[in-house]
Design goal:
This protein is an alpha/beta fold and 297 residues long. The protein is built from eleven helices and 14 strands. A hairpin with a 2-residue loop joins β12 and β13. The protein binds adenosine-5'-diphosphate.
Length: 297
């Protein structure tokens, strides 16, 4: 087991930020820690990495008990904190060398990591000259320097534009091939794009822990469709396999079918046969989204 969290409770004064949280993560898993702002994600990550203490409970990382082997535990973790603090006046390479010196890491290795996270073209610049996306890469490189088995990434994609998002997500996937990764996010699509498994946290409690495969294999199909005209709900009931129809906005509908078969062609044909145009037609994996919405409502 890479990470084991047992009955963790954290109080900030009177406030219970975590309430009896338990989960374990196997070696090699990429797990999304999903929850709305204030759910307790950062608090949990700070406890796992030993930056703050829990009020109650136990944490083991790579079999090191945090209460007795904190230093060894920290050495086996790469941590990218939220709002990753960087020395903005330092050059990228200089900053990474500075970090590497703490762990006595050879220069070659630093260059390997710079290349791995795609920083080579920016490595000669000052950190304050970098975009948010590249700054996060510097943080990620720093977290990877000592070749930790476990990576803890706290909201690594906050504030990125769509291109940067796609890049950093695929980078996380790439480095996750030979590491255990726990990363937090409040964005559902991120979990779907990157993870094997999702742990959903809300109000300091774990409310779901699921394999993404399990969720996607659910025999339901949800389609969002936009027609060019407003229509009545009854009208839609002629589409085969339709379980429910939900009017999202004006001419936009969310249709749920009791089959996993792709029903987009059927919806398209239905519209065409009835003199409607489909302006937009998207198949959505609504299972996780539904769960997220229901559980955090
Ligand atoms: P998330 O990372 O999911 O946004 P946090 O772990 O940051 O959530 O916060 C969980 C709850 O604990 C929030 O209500 C937050 O206001 C509170 N909290 C976090 N840090 C502190 C602190 N240092 N002192 C008091 N309350 C805190």
């Amino acid at each position: 087991m890479s990470i084991e969290v047992k009955n963790i409770t954290k109080l900030y004064g009177e406030q219970k930020a975590l309430n009896n949280v338990s989960f374990s993560i196997e070696k090699g898993e990429i797990v999304g820690f999903l929850g709305p702002n204030g759910a307790g994600k950062s608090t949990m990550m700070k406890i796992i990495t030993g930056y703050i203490n829990a009020s109650e409970g136990e944490v083991f990382v790579n079999n090191f008990d945090i209460s007795t082997h904190k230093l060894e535990l920290q050495k086996s973790i790469g941590y990218l904190p939220e709002n990753n603090p960087l020395y903005l006046e330092m050059y990228v390479r200089e900053y990474l060398r500075f970090n590497a010196s703490v762990h006595k890491i050879p220069k070659d290795e630093i260059e390997n990591i710079i290349a791995k996270v795609g920083l080579t073209p920016e490595a000669h610049k000052k950190i304050n000259q970098l975009s948010k996306g590249y700054r996060q890469r510097v943080g990620l490189a720093a977290a990877l320097l000592h070749n930790p088995e476990v990576l803890i990434l706290d909201e690594p994609t906050t504030g990125m534009d769509p291109n940067q998002l796609a890049e950093i997500r695929s980078l996380i996937k790439e480095v996750g091939k030979d590491k255990t990764v726990l990363f937090s996010t409040h964005i559902l699509q991120e979990v779907e794009a990157v993870c094997d498994r999702v742990i959903l946290i809300h109000n300091g409690q774990i409310i779901a822990d699921k394999n993404l495969k399990e969720l996607t294999e659910n025999k339901e199909q949800v389609i969002e469709v936009e027609f060019d005209f407003k229509i009545e709900k009854q009208f839609l009931e002629n589409i085969p396999h339709l379980k429910s129809a939900h009017n999202l906005h004006d001419t936009i509908w969310e249709l749920t079918f009791d089959t996993s078969k792709d029903m987009r062609p059927a919806v398209f044909d239905f519209a065409h046969d009835n003199g409607l145009k489909t302006l937009n037609l998207t198949a959505k994996n609504k299972n996780l989204e539904k769960l997220f919405r229901e559980l955090t409502a």
